[in-house]
Write a structure and sequence with these properties.
Among the domains are: 78 residues, Alpha Horseshoe (Leucine-rich Repeat Variant); 58 residues, no CATH class. Helices cover 70% and strands 0% of the residues. Helix 10 runs parallel beside helix 12 and helix 16 runs parallel beside helix 18. The longest helix is centred in the last third of the chain and has 12 residues. The chain is elongated, with a radius of gyration of 26 Å.
Length: 247
């Protein structure tokens, strides 16, 4: 297919689905470049970008296309690390920044973004790639979004930090993630008895080893979920209960 042929198709067929389907089968790099730059529908430009080989053109599109879908797709195809860093820090769209962050491996830069980006999706994506336990502990305790704190908790291995979060975190979903990673039996007993959230108490019960304590909880707890978890732990049965999830 030539540029003229595609122009005729575009003139005759306004439905972007057909143009996109044609682009997805093209190999002509010059024609793909023209489409990626000039088609008036972002779906079609995006399909063309996915088939481009020209890194210079991909860099141009990643920086300048007026639609974030197209810029984001170009980012996934980029090999220019300096430009990826620039986009991860500065692109106006969080989806583009997040795509760039996924391509990075510089731990110092990831730590910077994980702590400072104004969008929680971007911060959480950076946290996924972090290994620094001190930074993860700081984020797990201090980030203003529970999604980010939860992700940091999932990456933590520091027992002292996990125990502090299990006791003091305000969000029950994050506390539960911490409780799932602690093993201190006295702390688990404290949480099983006293945490204000039923779900957290249940998770703590499932990690208890003291059969006398489990028996007491199975008989006397006022929470049906705790009683059931204690009984199941004592009898070795798998839990059949369906609990809520948080997204």
């Amino acid at each position: 297919m030539t540029s003229t042929d595609f122009s005729r198709l575009k003139w005759r067929q306004t439905d972007f689905h057909l143009r996109r389907a044609v682009v997805e089968k093209l190999d002509d790099q010059a024609l793909l470049a023209e489409i990626a730059r000039n088609d008036n529908d972002y779906h079609v430009r995006e399909a063309a970008v996915k088939r481009l080989d020209d890194q210079a053109l991909l860099a141009e599109i990643a920086q300048n296309d007026n639609d974030y879908h197209v810029r984001r797709t170009a980012v996934y195809e980029l090999g220019d690390n300096k430009l990826l860093i620039q986009l991860a820090r500065n692109d106006s769209d969080s989806g583009v920044r997040e795509a760039a962050v996924k391509r990075l491996d510089d731990q110092a830069l990831l730590a910077e973004i994980a702590q400072n980006d104004n969008d929680y999706h971007v911060r959480r994506t950076a946290v996924y790639e972090l290994g620094d336990q001190a930074i993860l502990g700081k984020i797990a305790k201090n980030d203003n979004d529970y999604h980010v704190r939860r992700t940091a908790v999932e990456k933590l291995v520091d027992h002292a930090s996990l125990e502090e979060i299990a006791r003091n975190e305000k969000d029950s979903w994050v506390r539960r993630a911490a409780v799932e990673k602690v093993s201190d039996q006295s702390l688990l007993e404290e949480l099983a008895r006293n945490d204000k959230d039923s779900w957290v108490r249940e998770v703590a019960v499932k990690k208890l080893n003291d059969k006398i304590l489990l028996g007491e909880l199975a008989r006397k707890s006022s929470d049906i979920h705790v009683r059931r978890a204690a009984m199941e732990k004592l009898t070795g049965q798998a839990s059949l209960s369906t609990r809520r999830t948080k997204t």
